[in-house]
């Protein structure tokens, strides 16, 4: 009996690629990536690292688990709108809407007449239904884009009257005065940092006024000897009032009494309101413009509007957010404290750890200084890095040297996954916690 050279048993590339599992892999990863994985596995078989019968499995194993490098994480920070973690997680309805819109869709086409139709009309209708005081609506890329478009269309070459108390930096170096200057409008500052009166505005408003801009100083608070002029009074001065509410709250929320909302601002007389879609509205990144139909139309017709246009995926996600179930951001903000506590205590007991009271935060430059009372599992200091580097990555909150795991923004159905991730870092075996909890938890080093 002659020995067969095992290398002659290595399956050929075309034979491997013909297997059903590889057709599926090509659809997901592309043929170049799949061929490279097969070649690598064949090479391993040639060197004897694996057997010829292991080539198929090895090739599949070489394919990346993900086709995007963005890693889903568990947000255990208790900060609901977390900019670094992508702000608002979409509702399942919104995710499904995005998937459905990913192909060819009638975004700008009327199936009945076969003619071109207004882009995103269903999303705009949903916005107008959500805010009946708005005569019309427009969606652009983000809140900053909405503000740029509004000041450009209404005030380029003219003046934007704004209080010195509202010349804010929103984050990541985005400063309102610079943004307005970039539109070709001139900034007409009125009042002082802490106090601005109606007379200050009145003295500034004149034939050269393009608009009065009112900005919600969303990420800080000025306290003490302060005064500001509300939209109702500004609307009496004869110039269109643009109110940048920031957060995307469409109607008042009793939980957030200091947060301005679109409906109230329009009812008070604002010509238009600009806002983000992915803060308190809980939808995709988007900039909303709501308000007087003629003013919105001026913005829509401005050439800049085309450069700030949103894609069909955003329109789909936004419509589903407006019409569908309560999005995660809103649900998490309003989470039942008793349910949160029960989940937290169960997890803490399972891990043999303690529960501490914490203040969560709305985040995303909304409701500054308004803590969200909650609870968290306290882990030994130094766990945060290991949690971050685990699978899935868990982003804990580090506060005064403590490592806190806040369940507010963890979907209840992910509690088991979270527990496994925490056990891995604490090196608590299943069954160790709960009844014992006698300090068995060990922090994994480094
Ligand atoms: C967040 C915010 C913006 C910017 O909105 P983006 O959607 O992040 O571009 C503008 N104005 C205010 C008051 C904000 O809070």
From TrEMBL:
Top enzyme category: transferase
Pfam families associated with the record: Se-cys_synth_N, SelA
Query: What cofactor does this chain's UniProt record say it requires?
Result: pyridoxal 5'-phosphate
Q: Which reaction does this chain catalyze?
A: L-seryl-tRNA(Sec) + selenophosphate + H(+) = L-selenocysteinyl-tRNA(Sec) + phosphate
Question: What keywords were assigned to this record?
Answer: Cytoplasm, Protein biosynthesis, Pyridoxal phosphate, Selenium, Transferase
> What is an example of a GO molecular function annotated in this UniProt entry?
transferase activity
Xref: InterPro entries: PyrdxlP-dep_Trfase, PyrdxlP-dep_Trfase_major, SelA-like, SelA_trans, SelA_trans_N_dom
Q: In which pathway does it act?
A: Aminoacyl-tRNA biosynthesis; selenocysteinyl-tRNA(Sec) biosynthesis; selenocysteinyl-tRNA(Sec) from L-seryl-tRNA(Sec) (bacterial route): step 1/1
Name the EC number(s): 2.9.1.1
Question: What does the UniProt entry say about where the protein is found?
Answer: Cytoplasm
Which residue range or ranges hold the L-seryl-tRNA selenium transferase N-terminal domain?
7-46
Residues bearing N6-(pyridoxal phosphate)lysine are 279
Q: Which family is this sequence assigned to?
A: Belongs to the SelA family.
Relate the protein's function as given in its record. Converts seryl-tRNA(Sec) to selenocysteinyl-tRNA(Sec) required for selenoprotein biosynthesis.
Q: What is this protein called?
A: L-seryl-tRNA(Sec) selenium transferase
């Amino acid at each position: 009996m002659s020995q067969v050279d095992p290398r002659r048993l290595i399956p050929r590339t075309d034979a491997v690629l013909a297997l059903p599992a590889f057709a599926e892999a090509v659809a997901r990863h592309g043929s170049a990536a799949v061929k490279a994985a097969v070649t690598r596995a064949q090479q391993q078989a040639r060197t004897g690292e694996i057997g010829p019968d292991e080539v198929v499995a090895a090739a599949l194993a070489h394919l990346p688990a993900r086709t995007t490098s963005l890693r889903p994480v568990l947000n255990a920070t208790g900060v609901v709108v977390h900019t670094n973690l992508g702000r608002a997680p979409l509702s399942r309805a919104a995710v499904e809407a995005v998937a459905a819109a990913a192909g060819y869709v009638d975004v700008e086409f009327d199936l009945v007449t076969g003619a071109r139709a207004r882009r995103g009309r269903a999303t705009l209708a949903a916005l107008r239904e959500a805010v009946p005081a708005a005569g019309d609506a427009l969606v652009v890329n983000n809140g900053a884009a909405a503000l740029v478009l509004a000041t450009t269309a209404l005030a380029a070459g003219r003046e934007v009257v704004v209080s010195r108390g509202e010349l804010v930096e929103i984050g990541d170096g985005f400063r309102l005065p610079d943004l307005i200057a970039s539109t070709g409008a001139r900034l007409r500052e009125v009042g002082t940092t802490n106090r601005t009166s109606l007379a200050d505005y009145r003295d500034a408003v004149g034939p050269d006024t393009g608009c009065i801009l009112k900005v919600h100083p969303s990420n800080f608070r000025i306290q003490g000897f302060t005064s500001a002029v509300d939209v109702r009074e500004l609307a009496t001065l004869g110039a269109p009032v643009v109110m940048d509410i920031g957060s995307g709250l469409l109607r008042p929320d009793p939980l957030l009494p200091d947060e301005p909302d679109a409906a109230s601002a329009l009812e008070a007389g604002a010509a238009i309101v600009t806002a983000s879609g992915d803060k308190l509205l809980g939808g995709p990144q988007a900039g909303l413009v709501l308000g007087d139909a003629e003013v919105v139309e001026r913005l829509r017709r401005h050439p800049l509007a085309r450069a700030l246009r949103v894609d069909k995926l955003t329109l789909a996600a936004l419509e589903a957010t407006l019409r569908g179930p309560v999005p995660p951001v809103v649900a998490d903000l309003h989470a039942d404290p008793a349910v949160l506590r029960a989940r937290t205590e169960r997890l803490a007991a399972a891990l043999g750890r303690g529960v501490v009271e914490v203040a969560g935060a709305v985040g995303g430059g909304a409701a500054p200084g308004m803590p969200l009372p909650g609870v968290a599992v306290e882990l030994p200091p130094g766990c945060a890095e290991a949690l971050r580097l685990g699978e899935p990555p868990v982003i804990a909150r580090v506060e005064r040297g403590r490592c806190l795991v806040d369940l507010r923004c963890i979907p209840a159905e992910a509690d088991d996954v979270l527990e496994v991730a925490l056990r891995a870092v604490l090196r608590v075996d299943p069954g160790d916690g709960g009844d014992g909890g006698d300090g068995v938890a060990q922090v994994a080093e480094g």
